[in-house]
Design brief:
The chain is an alpha+beta fold. The chain contains nine helices and eight strands. Strands 1, 2, 3, 4, 5, 6, 7 and 8 form an eight-stranded mixed sheet that branches. The longest helix has 21 residues. It starts with a helix and ends with a helix.
Length: 268
């Protein structure tokens, strides 16, 4: 019975999406930043961390891509991408990453246009309708297995709880389910900084539903297809991101944004 109580639910934020008590609305940001930090890959060393994480997840664990001798997973879109990582502060271990792919002209297609263009059936949301410099794609989200759900859990999705319970305190474990949320928040912040007004993402429908619990409302713009598993095309306006966030996660957004602005200022 004790083990069951201690089990971390991986498919949704705490309370299964129910409203958090008022006293906890301010603690989510504090709790997240106590143990985790969003890092923008402003140099080659941090970008290398991104490629290592992706190789570990996409090549070694999931087998979605072919393993490489240098144990780095890269593709043609990385040259015009901005990368974000989440770092575990105490251990300095990078837990996860995501990228924002940009486009300057029609020769620079987004991954969703290159591999899944036919899946976008709501034509009003086609990237062709917008200025190329104002579109972007959030892609290659990867979370290392030590910070992700147990394989025995019944649900996949946004949650990214830890499986290495002996390596982390119970207090730390409670913040790990917010890793994916932190990645999407960071990507949305970078969209704003890059003047991206229309963002796309291919994701599991279950993940999109889970994100709605915190007010991140990706709009499905086509049917699900088999692309590295069952995924569907989604669209979101970064400008509306904070409007949709629930209060407790808007505080987290503001906290991460402040940290990212400081990082960008230091690197310039």
């Amino acid at each position: 019975m004790t083990a069951k109580k201690n089990k971390i639910k991986q498919n949704a934020p705490p309370n299964n999406g129910a409203k958090l008590a008022p006293q906890k609305q301010e603690s989510i940001a504090d709790h997240f930043t106590q143990f985790l930090q969003a890092r923008i890959a402003v140099n080659d060393k941090l970008k290398d961390e991104v490629f290592q994480i992706r190789h570990n997840v996409y090549c070694e664990e999931l087998g979605f891509e072919k393993a490489t001798k240098d144990e780095r997973e890269t593709d043609e879109f990385d040259q015009r991408s901005i990368f974000t990582l989440i770092q575990h502060k105490k251990s300095k271990v990078f837990t996860s990453c995501v990228r924002l792919v940009t486009s300057n002209n029609t020769d620079e297609l987004l991954p969703i246009e290159t591999f899944c263009a036919s899946s976008i059936t709501k034509s009003d949301y086609s990237p062709d309708n917008f200025d190329r410099k104002e579109i972007g794609e959030i892609s290659r989200l990867a979370v290392k297995s030590d910070f992700r759900r147990r394989k025995a859990d019944n649900f996949k999705g946004c949650a990214t709880g830890a499986i290495s319970e002996h390596n982390y305190s119970e207090t730390e474990l409670r913040c790990f389910p917010f890793i994916a949320i932190g990645l999407y928040i960071s990507a949305a912040i970078m969209c704003t900084k890059q003047n991206i007004k229309h963002a796309y993402v291919m994701m599991e429908p279950r993940l999109a539903r889970s994100m709605k619990f915190v007010g991140i409302n990706f709009q499905q713009i086509g049917a699900s297809v088999n692309y590295h598993g069952l995924r569907a095309p989604y669209y979101i306006k970064p400008a509306d991101f904070t409007k949709q966030l629930s209060p407790e996660f808007k505080t987290l957004y503001n906290t991460i944004e402040k940290d990212i602005i400081e990082q960008l200022a230091e690197s310039s």
